[in-house]
Design a protein that fits this description.
The protein is globular, with a radius of gyration of 18 Å. It contains nine helices and five strands. With 268 residues, it is mainly alpha-helical. The longest helix has 20 residues, at 29-48.
């Protein structure tokens, strides 16, 4: 896998091309965007309904399992770490070499937190801290936003709260989300991502988790799972992220955008 996808151009059908290699053999960017969007939504629903169990280990393998399930029918490298540096607008994410470290630190933060006894402010602060590390890792060539949001939703299951990504509920628009994520990146030469910009965002998206439905209530568990879905209004985007080559050393439902046409503007 690493030998096949070892350079920026190796992820595309042709050097400098706009469309990522995919298992459909699709070379039209708009068509790939739509097929990817449909497939990942279908796989997301299967996870939400418990039809595809994801072990809740809250570590790097947990993230890889989510990504593999969402994108396994779209990209050969689903669930595999990227081998190239990527950046989005002014944000440069972790070098490939540092991806495991960031995810290990995120796992450490999850394990060390007393999620079950947190109040809303504590939950928002700790969630922001965990996500800052997950976001800076940006471990995959594509699909980091969707994978990270679902991961955080599953982390929230440890608490009395859930995360509602719907702008209609939280007021957190894609622009607010993207700006807060960008500001959580570490300063040049520093490792630790500062989570302060993400804290009010996660607080706005935090809602109390409904009590577990009674066994005698038909359909209640299905409705609860639907309510928890981060895909209901989660800012879905195109089939290629807002990334372009970086350093390799070291919420309304919108129609998918054509992937790869502008490598400096894409998606989360």
């Amino acid at each position: 896998m690493a030998s096949q996808f070892s350079s920026w151009d190796s992820y595309f059908w042709e050097p400098g091309g706009p469309v990522l290699r995919n298992l459909y053999g699709e070379r039209d960017g708009a068509a790939l965007a739509q097929r990817e969007y449909s497939e990942t939504n279908k796989q997301q629903a299967k996870i939400e309904l418990g039809l595809t169990p994801i072990p809740r280990t809250y570590d790097a393998e947990h993230m890889r399992a989510i990504h593999r399930q969402l994108f396994g029918n779209v990209y050969e490298w689903a669930g595999e770490y990227r081998t190239v540096g990527i950046r989005k607008n002014l944000s440069e994410f972790s070098s490939p070499a540092d991806v495991p470290r960031y995810l290990d630190d995120a796992a450490r933060l999850v394990r060390g937190a007393q999620w079950s006894t947190m109040n809303r402010d504590q939950f928002a602060a700790k969630s922001a801290e965990v996500f800052a590390y997950v976001n800076q890792a940006h471990p995959f060539r594509e699909g980091n936003g969707r994978t990270g949001k679902l991961f955080m939703q599953q982390v929230s299951e440890l608490s009395p709260y859930r995360i509602d990504y719907s702008p209609a509920v939280s007021g957190v628009t894609p622009e607010i989300w993207n700006q807060a994520s960008m500001l959580s990146g570490p300063d040049r030469g520093r490792y630790e991502p500062p989570p302060a910009s993400l804290v009010p965002v996660f607080r706005a998206m935090t809602v109390e988790r409904p009590p577990a439905p009674q066994a005698s209530t038909p359909g209640a568990s299905t409705e609860l799972r639907r309510d928890r879905s981060p895909y209901r209004a989660s800012f879905p985007r195109s089939a290629t992220e807002a990334t372009k080559p970086g350093n390799t050393a070291g919420p309304t439902n919108r129609a998918p955008k054509t992937p790869g046409r502008r490598p400096d503007v894409g998606r989360d």
